[in-house]
Amino acid sequence: MPGPLEGIRVLDFTEIIAGPMAAMLLADMGADVIKVEPPWGEPWRLQSQVVPLEGKTYISLNRGKKSLPLDLTKPEAREIVYKLIKNTDVVIVNYRPDVPYNLGIDYETLSSINPRLVYVENTAYGRRGPHSQRPGYDIIIQALSGLMTGDGKILNGVPQQISATAVADTSTGLAIAWGASAALFARERTGKGQKVEATLLATALAVQTMRFLQVDMVDKEPREQFIEEINALRIAGASYDDMYGRYEALRLRLPGNIYYRTYKTKDGVLATACLSEPLRKKMADALGLYDMRFEVGYDPYSDQAQQFADELLPKAEALLLTKTTENWIQILDSAGVPCGPVLFTEELLEHEQVIANDLVVELEHSKVGNVRMVGPILQMTDTPLEAKSAAPALGENTDEVLGSLGYSLDEIQRLRDDGVTR
Predict the structure, then answer these.
(1) Which of 68, 78, 159, 294 is least crowded, fewest Cβ atoms below 10 Å from its Cβ?
(2) How confident is the model at residue 97 (pLDDT cuts 50, 70, 90)?
(3) Which residue, among 103, 137, 128, has the nearest Cα to 197 in the 3D structure?
């Protein structure tokens, strides 16, 4: 059965993470995605190379696509793009706002050729404002958006990036795919294409939900006071530790959190997640721990509560050390308490739950051979998603794509000789 985007053509002018990930998700949905990159390859072909120009990072973000290297500074390359645009549905770009104009692939130019075009532009900061022309990457947006300070990971007095994933980039990749799909749906109703703008800054703020929320009744005055104090500390040359200490004081947390956290066990680490009082009671009962906070009239901010919390934490930690992770999972599962082991990503390729839900696909890469990676992240009953092919080698599909536009083999070779393509 065809995927939900069967018959849709996408031109992917992106590099690094957010844009390539978005185009890959559209390819999983059945879209015909043509990756347009320089003849020397996009930068992440060089990251963790397995063989020359085939890096693991690139392979992980570009499956299901065709490779068409083009030097967009050359008029012949732009001519190829303009021929493709006539029968293209979606364009994705992730340059600084001035670059598409310089390369002749801006929205105004391409939509004048094809008014039905959905043009998705991803920038770091957005097209407006004093930072619009600045380059921006995941770590910079993590810093600017507060993601980095919210993570609480500090080394030698300096906040550290969230390194498990490029969180601003990957969340923006999802947003781009969502926006492109919505714009295609709108086009079915109106017959008109449109421009969709996504930014790393917007998604970095959106994924923080409650942290980027001000309820004036309770938040406005403390926030203004905090900003005033932080500015004063900066002017005084205070250390980041001093500023972060003030921030932690602002983020009022109830003491004695034994219910939503990780624990050392006899043979590993266990995570528990009890976000409601009924679940917390179940966990306390399963552990055989008395928690006075379930009593009627309990004041969580009292000195007695603080002292009790200080005593409860080490009791819970010592208890969890007495059994293996699997023993505790059996006990907590039977009590209806949400829990799970802490694993390494590398273990998940063989995990029974991952396998059972078809989350691993095997693909044959033309240069590096067999590749196993995460499969499509959605399941659809009538229009199933499919990982159609591994990431393309640089220039693997040049003859195919240009041949479909009417270029002869001699003409394609001339374009190669002139450095237009590869």
Answers:
(1) 294
(2) confident
(3) 128
Q: Given this model, what pLDDT does residue 150 score?
A: 84
Contact 33, 27 (CB under 8 A): yes
Is residue 25 within 8 A of residue 146, CB to CB? The reply is no
- Return all residues near 50 (Cβ < 8 A) that are at least 6 apart: 56, 59, 367, 368
Residue with tokens 């957010």: 18
Closest alpha carbon to 362 in 342, 382, 386: 386
pLDDT bucket at 330, cuts 50 / 70 / 90: very high
Which segments within 60-173 are labelled E, that is strand? 65-69, 90-93, 118-123, 154-155, 158-159
Q: How far does Cα 4 stand from its chain's mean position? A: 22
Contact status, residue 69 vs residue 37, Cβ threshold 8 Å: yes
Give the H/E segment covering residue 35: strand 32-37
pLDDT in tens, 162-174: 988 999 999 999 9
What is the CB neighbour count within 10 angstroms for residue 103?
Answer: 19
Residue 106's φ and ψ, nearest 5 degrees, are -75, 165
pLDDT digits (tens, 9 = 90+) for 148-157: 988 878 888 8
Helices 325-334 and 277-287 pack at an angle, to 10 degrees, of 130
For residues 194 and 107, what is the distance between their CA atoms, to the nearest angstrom?
Answer: 9
The Cα–Cα gap between 365 and 371 comes to: 7
Contact (CB, 8 A) for 67 and 97: no
- What is the average per-residue pLDDT within 65-75? 98
Alpha helix locations (H) across 236-276? 240-250
Q: For residue 283, which amino acid is it? A: M
CA–CA separation, 10 and 371 (whole Å): 24
| Residue 271 main-chain phi, psi, to 5 deg | -110, 140
Q: Is the dihedral of CA 172, 174, 180, 186 positive or negative?
A: negative
What tokens were used for 316?
């819970």
Longest dimension (CA), the chain: 85
d(CA 163, CA 193): 37
- Full-model pTM: 0.94
Bridge-based pairing of strands 90-93 and 118-123 is parallel
